[in-house]
Amino acid sequence: MKKLLRAALSLCVAIPVAAALMVSAAKAEKIRIALAETPSDELAAFFVALERAKANGLDYEWTAFSDEELAIQAVLSGQMDIGFGTPYAAMQRSRAPIRIVFQLSKLKFFPVTSKKYSKLEDLNGEPIMLHSRGGGTDSIANVIEEKLNIKFGKRSYVPGSANRIAALIAGQTDATIVDLSNKNKLMKLQGDRFNVLPMFEVDASDEALFANLDWIKANEKDVDIFVKALLSVWRDMSKDPTIIRKETNPDGPIGQLPKEVLDGLDGFYIDAVAGGLYDANGGGRKAAKADMEWYSAAGQLTGDPASLKIEDFWYLAPLDAASN
Asked: Are residues 282 and 231 in contact, defined by beta-carbon separation less than 8 angstroms?
């Protein structure tokens, strides 16, 4: 998503995803983090939290996978310890006790189209471009269909909101779903050519941090440091979004991004916080409940949402400890 970093980054290691392996509960020497995309402005807050966690003794390394499904698979296989995503379908069908510990961001995405369409109902039978199969934008499309009793035409998949915006501008698609930042950029530059369609409010998770419960319990101290650092950044950011730019390590992966990206960090986080992209309390029970409802409607969870148990999908002890 967005521009690739330099070939070698100090903390990044390349680990292929292979067949599923049994997850070891042994204490980790270094936490292995599976990112669902390459570092970008959207991950700047996360890397600020990593810097705070590192200052408190957390040793880690990260790998950027090309999409969420690969990151999820890497955690399921035991090749990575903790990952990005919303693996609800995998949690329900897998025997591995995967649990979410922190909501990183909400599903604040926007249907953007050419002037051919003016409301969501106009997309009945029409093709749409989405991020990835089974990912957040795919689930949004599923819920739109369910709520409005429509059916999209062919779905194509292009990772990265910026790439889908480029496809829209180039006339390669007439309809897509993109994040807050890229929606704002498009409308600022070419708002006369495109429509942002009215969308219902969503509080469910887009990105969350998850791991195998056995591993979490075996590495309780490190997980607590990690979650506490995340919560401190999310709370500070809610009060002052410019804290992210101020605390970004110039020698870290975000600090190596192009100058125009760095110069836009304040604007990105001011807009994101104002737009409700982040929960200053890390999601917790409120997010878990919203997720049960959303991902059931999206077809990624089976069964009555009212009968689903939060503890089967979330492990709240680290967040509870960090909140006290």
From this structure: yes
pLDDT tens digit sequence for 220-261: 999 999 999 999 999 999 999 999 999 999 999 999 999 999
Q: What's the domain range around 173?
A: 109-196
Same structural domain, 192 and 62:
no
Give domain status of residue 134, yes or no.
yes
- The predicted-structure confidence for 110-167, as pLDDT tens digits, reads as follows 999 999 999 999 999 999 999 988 777 898 999 999 989 999 999 999 988 999 999 9
Residue 210 belongs to domain with CATH number: 3.40.190.10
CB neighbours of 238 closer than 8 A, spacing ≥ 6? 273, 278, 280
Query: How high is the pLDDT of residue 262?
Result: 96
Residue 163 included in any domain? yes
Whether residue 226 sits in one domain with residue 312 = yes
- Tell me if 103 sits within 8 A of 279, measured CB to CB: yes
- Between CA 279 and CA 237 the distance in angstroms is 10
| Interior angle at CA 158, CA 155 and CA 159, nearest 5 | 130
If one compares 310 and 8, the residue with the highest pLDDT of the two is 310
Tens digit of each residue's pLDDT (9 = 90 or more) over 179-198: 888 998 899 899 999 999 99
Decide if 23 is inside a domain. Answer: no
- Helices of type H across the chain: 44-55, 68-77, 88-93, 136-148, 161-169, 180-190, 213-218, 220-239, 243-247, 259-263, 265-274, 284-297, 317-323
Residue 3: inside a domain: no
Using H for helix, E for strand and C for coil, what is the string for 11-33? CECCCCCCCCCCCCCCCCCCEEE
Q: Return the closest-CA partner of residue 318 out of 246, 234, 173, 213.
A: 213
What is the gyration radius of the CA atoms in the chain, in angstroms?
19
Query: Is 308 found in the same domain as 212?
Result: yes
Looking at the structure of the chain, the number of domains it has is 2
